[in-house]
Structures are given as structure tokens and as C-alpha cells.
Specification:
The structure is a single chain. The protein is α/β, with parallel strands linked by helices. It contains five helices and five strands; from the N terminus they run αααβαββαββ. The chain folds into two domains: about 45 residues; about 100 residues. Strand 1, helix 4 and strand 2 form a beta-alpha-beta unit. The termini are far apart.
């Protein structure tokens, strides 16, 4: 009799595990389907296309210079600042972004701003001449000839 009780208890445990496993598989499939549906609507979940479009004019306007300077108006040292710089580097590759404001050997500089500002004034403070406001917060500067 004890063998029958043990067998029945073991069979129930196996059945419970099988049911839970089947439910987990079904839930995973449902979640995957929902995720696919949501991302297919946007087509660009991380808005990479937007970043690439923002910086699209830079290579031609800089003569595809291998190194260009970059600065932005995010909080220095913040994750947001680093993320913006990384996104810009992705969009501008193979051009290499130089983040050191003290580099006097870099001719072209890209400003990446969150909001409209006095772009020419910001450039002057850093010894840069405004070349073009390319829209969407992207500004191209050139180091002044006499500086």
C-alpha cells in the first residue's frame, strides 16, 4: 500500500511539473509574439535611424576628416552624456570622435545640443567658428585660422 501511495504522489508531482512547464512555454511564445508585434510597428526600437539622420551631413561637410572633435550639452560625466557621445560615434563611423576640448590639432568640431542655444557664442568661447547649424541640435564648427 505504501508503494501505491508513493507512486501516486510521484505521478502527481511529475504531472504538476509537466503542466507548469507547458504553461511556461506557452507564455514565452505569447510574450515573444507580442514583443515582435510591438517592435515591428516601430521598426527601429532604439531610434538608431534618427541618430544616423541627425549626423548624416557631417562627413561630407568635414571632407571625411578621419578625426573630428565632439562635445555636447549633457551633464559632464553622466551616463546621458556618454550615451550621446557613443550614439554620435556610431553614426559618424569610421570618423573618430575626439572628446578632448583641449585638442588644438582638430579642425572640425561637432556640437550636439538638446535645445536651441547661442551656438555661435558657445563656439567662440572654445575658439571655434560656427560653420553650420544642421538642425535637430547638431552644429558644425571649425577651429579659427588664427587660433
Amino acid at each position: 500500500m505504501s508503494t501505491q501511495t508513493t507512486t501516486a504522489t510521484g505521478a502527481r508531482a511529475i504531472a504538476a511539473v509537466a503542466i507548469v512547464s507547458a504553461l511556461a512555454v506557452v507564455a514565452s511564445i505569447e510574450y515573444y509574439g507580442l514583443f515582435e508585434k510591438l517592435t515591428s510597428k516601430s521598426g527601429d526600437a532604439y531610434r538608431i535611424r534618427n541618430v544616423v539622420e541627425r549626423f548624416a551631413q557631417i562627413p561630407d561637410r568635414t571632407g571625411r576628416a578621419p578625426r573630428i572633435g565632439y562635445f555636447n550639452d549633457r551633464t559632464p560625466g553622466s551616463v546621458v552624456q556618454q550615451s550621446a557621445a557613443t550614439s554620435a560615434q556610431f553614426a559618424l563611423a569610421p570618423q573618430i570622435l575626439i572628446l578632448d576640448d583641449n585638442r588644438k590639432d582638430i579642425e572640425f568640431w561637432v556640437g550636439d545640443f538638446n535645445a536651441p542655444r547661442d551656438f555661435a557664442g558657445i563656439g567662440k568661447v572654445q575658439g571655434l567658428d560656427l560653420v553650420a547649424d544642421l538642425g535637430q541640435g547638431v552644429v558644425l564648427y571649425r577651429r579659427g585660422a588664427g587660433k
